[in-house]
Write a structure and sequence with these properties.
By secondary structure, the chain is of the alpha/beta class. Helix content is about 45%, strand content about 10%.
Length: about 525
């Protein structure tokens, strides 16, 4: 499928969503639509695996037969079903009975069958309970098919689901879909729903343009970024992963075999489920990722709480877009937490540095961390100034990148990217000012970084370039003289210099104009004399 067709598929599905959701909140409808798209993916993947497993025994259906091939095989081979399902659990790690396949569900929708809703409920439960719990457990737990948002009463809800599923099936029928295509469509819809969710969008989505900057930075060598991207990362962590788009962006840059394992953590249960679906939809095997549902700040993921230094997890790359200025409850116990005790606690009014220190703690000595934060972390005083000072004195802040306002759906404030390293080579901090109007374009109510803007940021970081009004390497002495304040305007002047005035050229032009005026006046006066009128002075 071409890139044009992929965009067309995404646009088609979004048009369906926009048409059908009516008065329903965008977040609520998102969960239904993305779950159905995911069921389509699971079904396609499962049927392809079964077909490969059964070989010539896989039934060939005649045109017009509305049954699924697997349903026919189940009917013909009842005594072999258990053996097949055991084999599929080993190979695909999940099982779908024929009645719960997308093809069967769409047939129920097409015929307006009264049992569609019940069948969907049973299907979601079956997939969760009959598969590997670590990956599929609770995957559809937030999909409430009995919600009054779908309609009042069973019949109305069943009818609404029939309409939604039939429209999605019709929309997909015009395109040749594989897992990558469905993954791209899923990602496109997440972005569109984020745009419609306003402030809530920040809970689950990092715009692709910003994700691409972070992902490009963390795959470059820590000491010598000019040597280009690494070929392989053993592990990548996003401790506030939302729908997982940032992690997938890193994977996309390195290829499907470029990362040993992807790790993510997400507090919101609905978004946590979205992330797991997103991983599987993009062809990431359940053995290649681990997404944990829990609170990052209290660090309730047992894997990260490991005290044995030999087993303690460390990551080659850490990326994150945590909630901005999140209010939290620091306690005395957290003050002694190994993540914070050497730097101090972030204030309860803004957990920005708490998130940063959490991720930095788990970074490998030769790893790279890139985190999106509000500009306030660069200059706010108090506890944040003490943490910032400690990080700077220890040589851990490598680069500060200022971005324009209105890049996010969730907030209009300008943001920055901080790049941190435990063993950075240059004894200075690179400042990049990408917030001026020439470095982005305005699109309706949002601002957008173009491909050339993204490339310029990445190239400037990679080769540590300096450019007037855009990028500058600042010594630690100068930063110390500024009280460890990292406000970009202190180090890079954004004032546009006035064009120099060529006084000789202007004087020559004035002399020429004066001569022209005198010639015109003399000519005019000659006409006035002929007419008997007094000449002009």
């Amino acid at each position: 499928m071409t890139e044009h067709d992929q965009k067309q598929l995404g646009s088609t599905l979004w048009a369906i969503a926009d048409q059908l959701r009516g008065a329903m909140n965008a977040d609520d409808f998102r969960d239904y639509m993305l779950s159905f798209l995911f069921l389509r993916y699971l079904s396609d993947n499962y049927e392809a695996a079964v077909k490969k497993e059964l070989g010539r025994d896989y039934p060939e259906l005649e045109n017009g037969d509305s049954r699924t091939a697997l349903a026919v095989w189940y009917k013909q081979n009842p005594e072999d079903i258990d053996e097949l399902e055991q084999q599929m659990r080993r190979k695909t790690h999940y099982v779908i009975e024929p009645a719960f396949l997308w093809g069967s569900i769409t047939e129920l929708a097409r015929t307006q069958d009264d049992e569609l809703l019940h069948t969907l409920e049973n299907g979601f439960t079956y997939i969760e309970n009959e598969s590997f719990a670590s990956t599929f457990g609770g995957l559809f737990s937030e999909i409430n098919l009995n919600s009054e948002k779908l309609g009042k009463g069973y019949s109305a809800r069943n009818d609404k689901l029939c309409t939604i599923i039939k429209k999605i099936a019709d929309g997909l029928a015009h395109f040749s879909t594989d897992s990558d295509t469905l993954g791209d469509a899923y990602e496109y819809l997440i972005g569109q729903f984020a745009a419609g969710s306003g402030k809530k969008a920040g809970e689950f989505y990092t715009p692709q343009q910003i994700s691409s900057i972070l992902s490009a930075i963390v795959i470059l060598d820590c000491q010598e970024p000019t040597t280009g991207k690494k070929k392989y990362l053993e592990s990548v962590l996003d401790f506030a992963c939302g729908s997982g788009s940032l992690l997938l962006n890193v994977r996309d840059r390195l290829g499907p075999n470029g990362i040993g394992k992807i790790y993510g953590q997400e507090k919101n249960i609905t978004t946590y489920n979205l992330a797991r679906m997103n991983m599987l939809l993009h062809g990431v095997k359940d053995s290649e990722f681990s997404i944990y549902h829990g609170d990052t700040l209290t660090n309730d993921w047992d894997m990260l709480r490991e005290t044995n230094p030999a087993k303690k997890p460390k990551f080659d790359a850490v990326v994150a877009n945590p909630p901005f200025s999140y209010r939290w409850q620091p306690t005395e116990a957290l003050g002694e937490d190994v993540r914070f005790k050497n730097h101090g606690m972030a204030p309860k009014s803004a957990a920005d540095f708490a998130f940063l220190l959490h991720g930095f703690h788990y970074l490998k000595p030769d790893g790279v961390m890139a985190i999106i934060l509000p500009h306030g972390v660069l200059f706010r005083g108090g506890a944040e100034q003490r943490i910032r000072t400690k990080l700077l004195k220890d040589g851990h802040i490598d680069t500060v990148i200022g971005l324009p306002a209105k890049l996010f759906y969730s907030t209009g404030i300008p943001v920055c990217i901080l790049v941190l390293k435990k063993c950075k080579k240059p004894d200075d901090v690179l400042f990049i000012n990408a917030s001026d109007s020439e470095h982005f374009e305005k699109v309706k109510r949002q601002n957008r970084l173009r491909s050339k803007d993204i490339k310029k940021i990445i190239d400037t970081y990679q080769f540590r370039k300096e450019e007037e009004r855009y990028a500058r390497r600042v010594t630690m002495d100068e930063i110390e003289a500024n009280g460890y304040n990292l406000n970009i305007s202190r180090y890079i002047s954004t004032a546009v210099p006035e064009e120099p005035v060529d006084l000789q050229a202007i004087n020559a032009e004035l002399v020429s104009l004066t001569q022209d005026i005198e010639v015109a006046r003399d000519k005019h006066n000659a006409f006035l004399v002929e007419l008997g009128l007094p000449p002009l002075p």
